[in-house]
Give the backbone structure.
Amino acid sequence: MTTFHGQMNGAGLRVALVCSRFNDLIVGRLEAGARDALVRHGVDDDAIDTVWVPGALEVPQAAHALASSGRYDAVVGLGAVMRGATYHFEVVANQSAAGLGRVAHDTGVVVTNGILTVDTMDQALERAGSKAGNKGADAALAALETVNVIRAATITS
């Protein structure tokens, strides 16, 4: 039995960050956190592209186009969806998450979900670089680890 672990080494990797403009105060912080985490772990800043789309529902479609392009080792979806008085929150949260999962499955490219789903602006701010860390950075690091563990497992097999 062999056990594989992914490394946090981004040397030579290309990563796309797909960011929702809706709630851009929060998403800008997630994008900065993701970019910083990637650079700190060896991804060249010039190998990180950021694409802005209108909202979280558009993130999966852009992620699919980028993943299908063959240019990227990983795609990170970033956004912030806040609960309101209607069912719209559930639709956006569920469909954006499901869409990103489909992109990973359909393309074979590593895709991670850094789309916050929160009740309040305070919760979003906490997760975009204050008390609860930066979930954009977490999603970026998950992408690096996943790319590397897949490579290790498939090259060794």
Observations:
- The chain has one domain: 15-150.
- Strands lie at 15-20, 48-53, 74-82, 110-118, 128-130, 133-134.
- Residues 83 and 119 are 5 Å apart (CA to CA).
- Residues 135-156 form the longest helix (22 residues).
